[in-house]
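Re-run with default settings, no changes from the original entry. Doing this only to confirm the output is reproducible before filing.
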Amino acid sequence: TLVLLNTMRFSLLSFIALAVTPSAQAFSPNTNGRSSLTLRSSAAPVEAVVIEHEHCKEAGDRDILVRAARGEETERTPVWLMRQAGRYMEAFRAYSTKYAFRERSETPSMAIELSLQCHRKYGMDGIIMFSDILTPLPTLGIEFDVVAGVGPVISTSIESENDVEALADAESVDFDEKLPFIREILSALSKEAEEANTSLIGFIGAPFTLAAYTMEGKSSKHCLTTKKHMMRDETGEDKTMSMFLDKLAVMIGNYASHQIECGAQVIQLFESWAHQASPASFEKFAKPAAQKAIKIIKEKHPDVPVIYFANGGSSYLELQKDMGADMIAVDWHIDMAEARKILGPDIPISGNIDPTILFGTKEQIEQAVRDCIDKAGGPGSKHLLNLGHGVMQGTPEEAVGWLVDEVKRYTEKKE
């Protein structure tokens, strides 16, 4: 393993896009359609230790994640981790403690670097763009910010059918005009992924999750405002919820397609607030909207696999078998063997190690990897290993390496 004690190595693409100023500037995303290289950033190279992995050297490593997501048998089980680019890494915190989230995610130089840090260190089977599920909301006229200690806060109110009608037309959104940084980030990461012999993952938020986030205005324990909207929709009192979900589904489906056209090879759709939906409300509201978004993606890009992840939705996993996605990701609240039994042997599955296992010993982590792979059907059995939620802040960095190393080492199927 090569340890570099000098300045963190930036890709040429990242370095060219990096502007250095004496102090941080107020951030305002570029929406005028010009290259977002004009965004001002005070980011500077950060002194850090970078440990180069020994993975991604086999010819099949370039697309093993894509092949597994499509449902192909693979030579081993591929691996990536939700929030693999995150605050558990010291190199990541060098940015997150200094720059606001939207500045980091909408300034190409920083977003590219933050996307690549974890792959340089661990060699997962995919690089995922550093961004947020809320990023496309401003294309409809929904404004948000990410407040330290609070999280995302949405300032645009959606309380009536008139509010939904006042939003921009979802069909005609020009993502290059409204979110010019996305093409720049994904185009650069596409080249980086090719050079690193790995895949590039794009992602979107599911319509229900985005609707609930907007209606609540921020993270919510009970999601009561959203549930009241659903109940009024059911009685026919007003159709704000249905109208909003439909508009979001169109925008999100087109946004995912835009990511693919910019270089993404796989799309994961996050239903992050699935835990707020009962089986009935999932089936009536969340599921049809997600299916509509997935259908838009698959009609435009039939060969690009779509992964659907309902966080907190394992209690109604049976309802997810016909989502229209190529692969279903499951959270850690269900045993992988039971999830495989419910979905059957033919539906590709992703997941689902409890993220807290990364606070355990090396032996515990390696055993959890083998158990998960075996319960999914054995190495290479239409399974993409992931956590059942994101890497937690405070996770020991070496533990992530132990997990990735064991997944790539474990290739022999049990008799």
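The chain has 15 helices and eleven strands. The two ends are 33 Å apart (CA to CA).
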